[in-house]
Design brief:
Blueprint (H helix, E strand, L loop, with lengths): L19 H8 L1 H37 L10 H33 L1 H6 L1 H6 L5 H32 L14 H7 L1 H21 L2 H22 L7 E5 L11 E9 L4 E3 L11 H9 L1 E9 L4 H31 L11
Antiparallel strand pairs: 1-4, 2-3, 2-4
Length: about 350
């Protein structure tokens, strides 16, 4: 007996896979345009800071340093304008990871889960895992490029003032160090994944927003606290006749060295050259010199790259956790929408 061929009415045809990229861009177009505008505006300001503003400030400082005992005129406003806009752009670059985190927590995943849009997508030949992978991969590329560009431009704008502007920030300044390196771009990616994880965990925009911002802030705080200990420091001993221990950079520890070679952390009084008070303090402690355990400028990239590696490792762990949570919440891929019989 010959089997009957299935009729068109009874044939279940899998739904055509939607164009995820086009769908994601259309869904998050306002956020995409806002991010591009943010990168262009801040990038343009950094070019302005590193170019015309740096030149004007350097010229003003040159005039000031050439002044004699009788004084002279120099462009005070140029110096202040450079300082202000350097600080503004530094804050903007540091804020980028938190802007990404806020958007990711409030809109990337949680809003679609709350409204049911995600569940609808899963019935249209898109598995939950593929859906989440696309949600993370597309913005990750734009965020990595944008935040990396801003960090690079900030480093360039800062470097143009070295040796030309007397009040230029040191490489170890907290804001400058954070905005100048690769750790900022890595933190933006961590914020993206953190927002997605909290969106899956809470499924409610405001709760996910709060949780992701707290997580990103905690991660960055822990990395900042750990940074001085991520690479072996150098130690420098100097005379008590100086006001402070010699050596400029990220300080790990500093204090006094006794006649027996023992290190006593802290207890810095000041120079023994002026007044008797500090001489008396140091004599009671049997101190003969300062010590300073610190990171010089040559340690900048080892510290930055180590911090970046740690942040990326946490980001990878959060990504695995997000996919595991999604699998736990959805189980196996939902059944495809069957054709009508």
């Amino acid at each position: 007996m010959t089997a009957l061929a299935p009729t068109p009415a009874l044939t279940s045809r899998p739904a055509r896979s939607p164009h995820l990229l086009r769908w994601l861009i259309r869904l998050h177009r306002p956020a995409l345009l806002a991010w591009i505008a943010f990168v262009l505006v801040v990038g343009g300001l950094l070019l302005w800071v590193g170019g015309p503003l740096t030149d004007a400030s350097a010229a003003a400082w040159k005039q000031y340093n050439a002044c004699g005992a009788d004084g002279c005129s120099y462009d005070v406003k140029a110096i202040g304008r450079y300082k202000d806009w350097y600080n503004y752009t530094t804050i903007a670059v540091i804020a980028a990871p938190f802007l990404v985190t806020a958007w990711s927590g409030a809109a990337l995943v949680s809003r679609e889960l709350e409204s049911g849009t995600a569940q609808l997508a899963w019935t249209q030949a898109v598995s939950p895992a593929r859906w989440l992978a696309a949600k993370l991969a597309v913005p990750a590329v734009l965020i990595a490029v944008g935040s990396g560009l801003l960090a690079g431009l900030h480093h360039w704008a800062w470097s143009t003032g070295q040796g030309r502007i007397d009040t230029v920030k040191g490489w170890h300044d907290l804001g400058t160090y954070a905005a100048n390196g690769t750790a900022t771009a890595a933190m933006a990616l961590a914020g993206l994944v953190s927002g997605a994880f909290w969106g899956l965990y809470k499924r409610e925009p405001y709760s996910a927003l709060f949780g992701s911002l707290m997580s990103t802030g905690l991660l960055w705080s822990l990395v900042a606290l750990a940074t001085p200990h991520l690479w072996p420091s150098v130690s420098k001993v100097s005379s008590l006749t100086h006001s402070v221990p010699a050596g400029s950079g990220i300080v790990v520890d500093q204090g006094l060295v006794t006649s027996t070679g023992q290190h006593i952390s802290g207890h810095l009084c000041g120079s023994t050259t002026y007044g008797q008070h500090c001489k008396t303090v140091y004599a009671k402690l049997d101190a003969v010199s300062y010590y300073n355990d610190y990171h010089p400028q040559s340690h900048y990239w080892p510290l930055q790259l180590t911090s970046t590696a740690i942040i990326l490792a946490v980001t990878a762990a959060l990504t695995v956790a997000a996919f595991s949570l999604l699998k736990h919440r959805t189980g196996s891929a939902p059944a495809r929408k069957a054709a009508a019989v």
